[in-house]
C-alpha cells in the first residue's frame, strides 16, 4: 500500500531533508507540504535541490490541512508542535522532529525550554540501548514518535553501550561537538551568517545550557538495566538520571552539515579493554546504520554525508583513564530526518532501511 | 640597533609566518632564508603572499649559512633542529619552532617523539604562570628559546591559572580542539588534501597519542606553586607532573588557520565561583595578548586571525561539576610564530608587542 | 539479469564515485575493484564512506584481473587506459572515465595531452545535441564509451543548444568555472593541500592551456547541424571546429565537489529573446537530468550535490550583447561517474535513470 | 598632528575594517563610532576582533555626532550617505564607502540604484589610470572622496591599462568574479546564511543587473586618453563610456573575504604580446599595492588576505583572441577600507602606505 504524507515546516532544513528522503521512498506519496510565512509559494523556490518535487506548492500549516493523511511529519520550531498534535488525533502516525514530545521530566522541560509541557512520545533512535533491549522494539507499531535532537542522539549512541554494560562512569561525561550550522535551522540570526561562519570555529551554549543536555541524560539513564538503577529511578526521580552528568559544548565549524562528537567518560573500576570494546560490539555488531570502526580507526563527517549512518571509533586512554568515543553523523539525516524515516519504517512494518542509504557522499 | 636574522624552513608555514611578522619589525633585518629541497628558488614562489620579501632567495639549510646572524629561527620538522643547534654555538639568540628543545623528560621524549634527546630551552609562552610567577621572567635575556607547540600552549594557557590557584582538579582534564590543517605543515600526506578536509570534520591522534600531551603536562606542572607540589616534584618524578592527566583530542576542521580549544577539569572541592573566575582574572588581567572575555562571552577563531592574541571564555558548570574554558588562537601566530617573536622581543629587551597585532582579521 | 562489473582506479575519487552509484544499482554486481599502489588493501580503508562495500579488497590493475566481466570501468590517470583497452577486446562494455578515448583530433591530443593517440569512443553525455539529434542515440548499444571531462561536459551542455540553433556566435565564447578540487583527483600536489585551498580562490591553467578546451570545441562543433557546417567539417578540418573559440578559466574554490560554470557568447545577429530561450527549452525541455531554470533563476552547486543533475540558468544581456548561461553540476556525478552510469544504462537498454538521483543533497 | 576621526556604520563589515586599519595608524585618533540599531552598545560586542578598541561605545548616527571631527568615514547602506554629507559641510575630509557619490551619470544612478542623485566625489582608487595620468593626482588635497565598489575597482584595475594603451577592445569585456560574502555586508538575508554558502558556489545578479557595472564603465572610460575619446565624450554622452560593454557575473564562494576576478577582452588588432604586457607593466611597475605577477603566474585571494594589495596575472590567449587578467584583492581592504585609508593618506599628504600592509595573511 501507499501511505499519504503531509510534511509541515517544508521550507526549512529539517522539513526539506524529510522530503528528500521520502521522495525516494516507494511506499510514500508526498501529498501535502506546508509552511508558515512561505505558504502559497512553490516548494522548489525554497528547496531548489528537490527537483522531483517541483510540482508541489506550500500550503498553510493548519490542523485542517494536515489532517486526513496517513502520516504527518512535524518539522516546526520547538514549542509549536503541541497545538497541532492535539488537533490531529485521527492521524494514524505522527512524527515530530521538534523537541515538544521528547522529554519525560517536566522540570527539565521548564528549565531548558519553557512553555507548555507535552507528553513524551516514543523516542526515534532505534539502535539505542533501552533497559536491556533497544528502542527499536518500542517503535514497532508506534503511532506517535519523537525524532531525536541531532546532537543528543549522537552523544547518546556514543556512550549508551558503555553505560548499559557498566564499563564507564556516567557521572563525569564530557562531550565536545564540531557541528555544521544547518542544525540551527534557516533562521535569520547574525551569528548564522556565512561571513560569521566561514573560516572560523565558533562555540555556543557553553557551560551546561544547551537544550540537548536533559535529552542525553534521559537517554543514557534509560540505557541502564540493573535493579539498582530501576529502584533508584522509581524512588529518587522522575527521569531516573541520577548519577549521569555531562559537560556538553557544541562548536560551529565551517561545514553545512555534520556532527563530529568527541565524548569521553572515566573507565569504570575493573573494566578491561575487552569488556569495554565488547560492550560497543555487542550493542552495534548487528546494526546496519550504527557501526563501530576497527580499533585505531575514527570517522569523518564526510563519510556519512547524506547517509543515515552513525560511524564511531573508540579509544581506551589508560593514561587519562577515559574511554573516548568519536562519532560522525549527518545531523539532518541520522540526526533528524533519517531517524524519522527509519522510525516510520519500523512503525509501519516496512523494511527498516527503505529509502535510506548507508554510503556517504565523499569526498 | 638592527638585528640580522636567518630563518630556516622558510618555505614552510611556520617559517613563512615568522617572516610575515618579522617583515613588519623595525629592529630586524631579514638577511637569510633557507630551505631544504626548495633551496635555490625565489622565496616568493613558495610564499606568494610575502610581497615585501620578493627579493630573497632560498639558500641551503646548513650551519655555515645560518651562522653569523644575530638571531636564528629554526622552523624545521621535529628532530632536525638538534644537528644545527650544536653547530651554532656562537649565535647570540636561537629560537626553535620545533619540538626538539621543549621537553624536560627523556621518557616523554622517547615515548612521544623518539630519536636523540636535546636539552630543554626556555619555553616561549610569556604569559604562562610558572611557579608563582610567569614564564616571561625567564625569557628576559634568554639566548635559547623553544617556541611552544600550538595546541600545547593553547591548552596550557587555558588551564594554568586554575591549576596554579588550585581551583580545578588537574587529574581529569579533557581537551577537544577544533584545528586548522596549517598546524600540520606543508607535507604531502593524503589526509591533508583539500578534498579530504573541505566540508568535513576529521579527528586524529585520538586516545592519548598526540605529541603535545607531555608538553601540556609539563607546562601545567610548572604552573603549580604549593610546597606539596614542589616536594612531590623533587621526590617523585623528573618532570613533576604527577596528578596531571589529560584526555586530548584534536579535530581538523575546514579552516586554514585557528585553534578553538574546549578544555575542562573538575571543580576543586570548596572552590567558589569567585575563586575560580578570580584565578583567571588575576593571571591575565594585565596581559595584552591573553584576554579573558566577560562572563557569558566566548571567542571565535576569526577574532584572532593573524593576531598574537589568545582569547578565552570561562564557564562554571556546577551541574557537570566542571570548569570549562574555551580558547581561540591563531595556531601560526600566538601558537607558533607570534610566540617566537614575542619571546624574542622580551629576550632582547624590546617592547614586547613590537610587530605583533592584538586585533584579528575578521570576518 | 545481473551484470558483473570491475572498476579500476577504485581507490581514487572518480573510481569511488562510480562505486557509490553502482552500489545502489539493482542490475549490477560489483565483483572486482583494482588499484595501483594500494592493491592488496581493503577498499574501505581508501573509501571509508562506502560502507556497503566493506567486503571488497583492492586487486592489481592488470588486463587479466579486469577481463572476464560484463562491464569494465576505467578510472585511471590520463594516458593509462590505452594499454588496457587493447587487451580487453572481449569485454562487452568498457567505459573509460579518462581522456584517452575522447578526442577525435590527433593534433589536439598531441598538443594538450601527448603520448599515444587512441581511437575516439562514443561520447557519454546523452543529452548533448549532436548533428540535429542527441548523443543519446549513439549510446544505445554502444560497447566502448568515453565518459566526459567534467568541465568540458558542463560547458558543452551550457552552450550546445545555442550553437545548434545558431542563436549565439561560437567564435568568442568565454567560460569561467568555480570548481572543487576533487576534479583534480587524489594526487599529492602542493597546490591541492587543504591549507592552500581553504578560504581562498585559486585560478589554474589560465590562458588557453586547459586540456578540456579541445573537448569542448569538438562537442560544440558536433552540435551544429547546418549544411554549411557539414561541408566545412568535411572540407576544412578533421574535427570541424572552425569558428569555435573559447577562453576558458577554471578557479579552484573551497568546496570539495561542484562546478559552477559561467559561460557566455555573443548574441547572433537577429536572434530574438524568444529564439534564444527557445533553443535551450527545445533542447532540454524533456530531459530529466539537464534542466533549464525559469527566467531569473540561477543554480547553486549545492542543489546538485551527489545528484546526476545539471541545472542551468540563462540570461540575455543586451547591453553586453551576450547570452550568459550559468550551469551547476557535481563534477564527480554528472561530470564523471553519473555520466558513466547513465551512459551504461542506455547502452544496456536499462532505464536511463537507474541508480541516479535527480535531487541534490542540500544544504 | 593627530587627526580626529568618526566612523559611521561601525558595527558593519566595512566600518569594522576601516577601524581595524585606523587602529594601527599613528596619525589617527578614533574618537567616535556610530551605528543605527546597535547604538548604545559597546563596539566590541559587534566587532569582537577589535580588541584595542574595546573602550569605544557605539553612538547614534546623526549629523551632530559626526560633526566636529577632522575626518568622517561613512560606511552606510547605499542611499543613506547623502542626508549626512549635506549636513557635514564643515568637516574637512569626508570619505564615503557607499555608492552615493561614485557615479557621474544620473541615468546610470536611476537605473541601477534609484533615489536621490548626489554629486560625484573624487574616486578613491589611486593607481587607476585616468586620462593619461592616475587617479592619485586628483586625490591630493581632496576633501570629498568616494571609496570604490570592491568588485568595480578590482575589474577596473584589471583592464584599465589595456584600455588606456588601446591594446584591448573594451566593447566586449567579460568578467566573472569569485567573491566572499562579506562584500554583501551583515544584512540578514536568507541567501547569506552560512548553511546556504558553505560547500557551494552561488551566482547572483546575473545578466547585466549588478550595480557595479556602470562604475566599471565609467572608470574604464576615464582611463582613455585619445582625442577621439575625448571628443566622443563631450559630444555623445555624459559619462563618455560609449564603446565600453561588460558582461559581469559575480559568484559567491565559501570564503569570508576575497575577490578573484577573471576578466578578459578581445586583443586589439595589431597589438603584439610586448605591447600588451608592456601596457600593464607601464601602468603598475612603480606601484606598491598593485602588482603584475611574472608571466605564467596568477594570484590567489589568500595571498592578499588582510592586505591592501591587488595582485594580477595576465595571459594572452591567441587561440581565443583574448587578453585574460586574473586579479585577487581582499574586498574589505583594497576593495573598500584600504582604498579609503590609502586615499585619506594621499589627501592629507601622509605617506601613502601608512597603516596598510602589502603582505597577505596566508595560508
Automatic annotation (TrEMBL), chains A, B, C, D:
<keyword id="KW-0055">Arginine biosynthesis</keyword>
<comment type="function">
    <text>Catalyzes the NADPH-dependent reduction of N-acetyl-5-glutamyl phosphate to yield N-acetyl-L-glutamate 5-semialdehyde.</text>
</comment>
<keyword id="KW-0963">Cytoplasm</keyword>
<dbReference type="GO" id="GO:0003942">
    <property type="term" value="F:N-acetyl-gamma-glutamyl-phosphate reductase activity"/>
</dbReference>
<keyword id="KW-0521">NADP</keyword>
<dbReference type="InterPro" id="IPR058924">
    <property type="entry name" value="AGPR_dimerisation_dom"/>
</dbReference>
<feature type="domain" description="Semialdehyde dehydrogenase NAD-binding">
    <location>
        <begin position="4"/>
        <end position="136"/>
    </location>
</feature>
<dbReference type="InterPro" id="IPR050085">
    <property type="entry name" value="AGPR"/>
</dbReference>
<comment type="similarity">
    <text>Belongs to the NAGSA dehydrogenase family. Type 1 subfamily.</text>
</comment>
<keyword id="KW-0560">Oxidoreductase</keyword>
<dbReference type="GO" id="GO:0006526">
    <property type="term" value="P:L-arginine biosynthetic process"/>
</dbReference>
<dbReference type="GO" id="GO:0051287">
    <property type="term" value="F:NAD binding"/>
</dbReference>
<dbReference type="InterPro" id="IPR000706">
    <property type="entry name" value="AGPR_type-1"/>
</dbReference>
<dbReference type="InterPro" id="IPR036291">
    <property type="entry name" value="NAD(P)-bd_dom_sf"/>
</dbReference>
<dbReference type="GO" id="GO:0005737">
    <property type="term" value="C:cytoplasm"/>
</dbReference>
<protein>
    <recommendedName>
        <fullName>N-acetyl-gamma-glutamyl-phosphate reductase</fullName>
        <ecNumber>1.2.1.38</ecNumber>
    </recommendedName>
</protein>
<dbReference type="GO" id="GO:0070401">
    <property type="term" value="F:NADP+ binding"/>
</dbReference>
<dbReference type="Pfam" id="PF22698">
    <property type="entry name" value="Semialdhyde_dhC_1"/>
</dbReference>
<keyword id="KW-0028">Amino-acid biosynthesis</keyword>
<dbReference type="InterPro" id="IPR000534">
    <property type="entry name" value="Semialdehyde_DH_NAD-bd"/>
</dbReference>
<dbReference type="Pfam" id="PF01118">
    <property type="entry name" value="Semialdhyde_dh"/>
</dbReference>
<comment type="pathway">
    <text>Amino-acid biosynthesis; L-arginine biosynthesis; N(2)-acetyl-L-ornithine from L-glutamate: step 3/4.</text>
</comment>
<feature type="active site">
    <location>
        <position position="150"/>
    </location>
</feature>
